[in-house]
What we know:
Number of helices of chain B: 16
Largest sheet of chain A: 5 strands, mixed
Largest interface: A-B, 96 and 92 residues
Shape of chain A: elongated
Number of strands of chain A: 12
Oligomer: heterodimer
Number of strands of chain B: 0
Helix content of chain B: 55-70%
Largest sheet of chain B: none
Radius of gyration of chain B: 23 Å
Number of domains of chain B: 2
Radius of gyration of chain A: 27 Å
Structural class of chain B: mainly alpha
Structural class of chain A: alpha+beta
Number of helices of chain A: 9
CATH topology of the largest domain in chain B: Cytochrome C Oxidase, Chain A
Strand content of chain A: 15-25%
Strand order of the largest sheet of chain A: 3-2-1-5-8
CATH class of the largest domain in chain B: Mainly Alpha
Shape of chain B: globular
Strand content of chain B: under 5%
Order of helices and strands of chain A: HHHEEEEEEEEEEHHHEEHHH
Helix content of chain A: 25-40%
Amino acid sequence: xxxxxxxxxxxxxxxxxxxxxxxxxxxxxxxxxxxxxxxxxxxxxxxxxxxxxxxxxxxxxxxxxxxxxxxxxxxxxxxxxxxxxxxxxxxxxxxxxxxxxxxxxxxxxxxxxxxxxxxxxxxxxxxxxxxxxxxxxxxxxxxxxxxxxxxxxxxxxxxxxxxxxxxxxxxxxxxxxxxxxxxxxxxxxxxxxxxxxxxxxxxxxxxxxxxxxxxxxxxxxxxxxxxxxxxxxxxxxxxxxxxxxxxxxxxxxxxxxxxxxxxxxxxxxxxxxxxxxxxxxxxxxxxxxxxxxxxxxxxxxxxxxxxxxxxxxxxxxxxxxxxxxxxxxxxxxxxxxxxx
Amino acid sequence: xxxxxxxxxxxxxxxxxxxxxxxxxxxxxxxxxxxxxxxxxxxxxxxxxxxxxxxxxxxxxxxxxxxxxxxxxxxxxxxxxxxxxxxxxxxxxxxxxxxxxxxxxxxxxxxxxxxxxxxxxxxxxxxxxxxxxxxxxxxxxxxxxxxxxxxxxxxxxxxxxxxxxxxxxxxxxxxxxxxxxxxxxxxxxxxxxxxxxxxxxxxxxxxxxxxxxxxxxxxxxxxxxxxxxxxxxxxxxxxxxxxxxxxxxxxxxxxxxxxxxxxxxxxxxxxxxxxxxxxxxxxxxxxxxxxxxxxxxxxxxxxxxxxxxxxxxxxxxxxxxxxxxxxxxxxxxxxxxxxxxxxxxxxxxxxxxxxxxxxxxxxxxxxxxxxxxxxxxxxxxxxxxxxxxxxxxxxxxxxxxxxxxxxxxxxxxxxxxxxxxxxxxxxxxxxxxxxxxxxxxxxxxxxxxxxxxxxxxxxxxxxxxxxxxxxxxxxxxxxxxxxxxxxxxxxxxxxxxxxxxxxxxxxxxxxxxxxxxxxxxxxxxxxxxxxxxxxxxxxxxxxxxxxxxxxxxxxx
Lengths: 340, 556
């Protein structure tokens, strides 16, 4: 497997049409749901053809003809017939319940506890208006303890060696829902409740999704990006994310400006005095492909525009415009550009 | 049964001949102070039609915004206000009032009663419902409508997230219109239990009356939890209570249970009366008695009770236990059994008949052919794991519009085309009816069919825009195109109502050669409904009168 550079993925996402179809499963869970969809769809089609067929036959065969004027024979009902068409749907329902039970027990398993050498990744996902916070807890039984935002990196599974990702879902404010159709069904993030979801795929690459529970003004731009990488590459990413922020004397003015402005009230840059937690963690901002929860590519121009006035890109979002002078804005952007 | 041209209800006021200005005042006075069930019924229907137009305009604005990816026709918050108001309007101020209105007009006439049991309560119910609707819309005057979605999930409705008074107007408006609905429900139950014509036992009720009875029962069960939830959210917002305020020990999950305990039976409140209307229209236009009346009646009751226990199928993604998921999935699937029985009985009623495709039957066939699809996608959504994918996607939007338009609306049009001659004394234009039907039928399929596809392609509902690389643009454009094809059909309908009321062919007492009691009196009926109390021997009193040699009561 060749290494996938984040830049090439982004370029691809800008040109080609992305596939978010529930009929393109890339995980065992999504696969079993697709199987159920095909089964119910087939039953659906059979019943539909039967009912519409009878209806059309009735409409054609028993339409009023001018030559007949007498009332047709009045048939008040028939108990055997009624029993027959009560029993048939009951049997179908019974069969469907069995099929649903099987898939349900496959798709929604209890979350295990992390263990040494379990090849599993545990991430706590916290929904915010309108971005995703990811707290990486353990991988392979090793504690991780770093936080990132909006782009979830996970290792790819191989035949015989699953690398499962166990998500613990919580919300910091209102209800949200985590939905990456090709990897699994959705699961809500409710304040005051803890939910679980498992991802697992043998397909490396980028998987898209978005928040699926209406959560206010920018619900539409609470996008999800899941980046599935080969284990070695994923380990490299982990090592980079775990480190504190890079220090670079060349951008000292920008760093000072960032620390002096109210940026620090909401954003954290590990290894610096910036300890805010209301907004996304910026420690390794430049390792992300996108800004504003997946809405725009992470380029210096977009970053400048975003800090200048986030409200033009994402009207209603909770980050205000700070009326920064041009030099100060440029200094802060230059500083952020070093956070790789 | 007089054949003299009947006095027109809208013209009653001018009969004293004292001039137009006085006439208009008098007419307004008559209509606003009326406690006559027929006038109140018509008021309900007119109110619903006005709100239907408003809700439709809101839908068109949303479709305009979604036509192109990343379009900037509407601001995000405006879009969110529109889908909140569209849903609230269509459910509470179009769907329920139009069915309550038809029931109001028809139930006393069909059971041979002079009026509803409590005429003043009836008038109160209408006006409080109307004022509830106006109160919700008054939120626009306070700087914007609520942007919370029609099921208003907490804690997005809390003061912290929904600042400004819009959400309070929304909650108050629904609260008081709910009181109107309860009033109507009490009235239906009392009327149907206590005021039937001599000989009309409970087993001989016209089928529409039977479904109205059970709709009313369902309203009495479903509305109180909603009322309680609305009071709780108002307490939270106005008095600093913490029912749904998670930071202070409240529960967001609680709101979902309370709301859907109302919200799911509500769906059946919107469809049961339509089942009733269809069960009147299909027999008359197939010239056959309703097949399996007892099974149909039992199926209605089964739907009412089973549907009280299925609400959490709206909540499969909130992380309930697998056992709870399965219980609610099984209960939801069970509803399909009595619904299936109804379908087969309608088809059996048509089988061997002599079917006339007048406008009511045309819409009834539209109902039969479309509602079955809405029911089947409902079965897909009840299959829990599949719902993990489809829940809150456009598939759901497609599904419930299929049920509410393909089911409720087509059925209601069948009912309006069937009974309009009784209400006004004039026939609606059949030519316009056909234009309306085909534009609606094609436009409807084109609007809501592609929604199922965009949902399966991963498009969640309630998003004001989407990225071009998602592959959803084509499906959204088809949907918008469908909406544009539908639009003229509603205009044709309104024009038909107005033009036929002025110039339609006189209908006579019994234009469809029908069998229930309302067709024995004049069109429109006099304020006292019947000159003499009818005596009933069977479910089809007029069949008995028209076929004395072979009356129904010999077989029932």
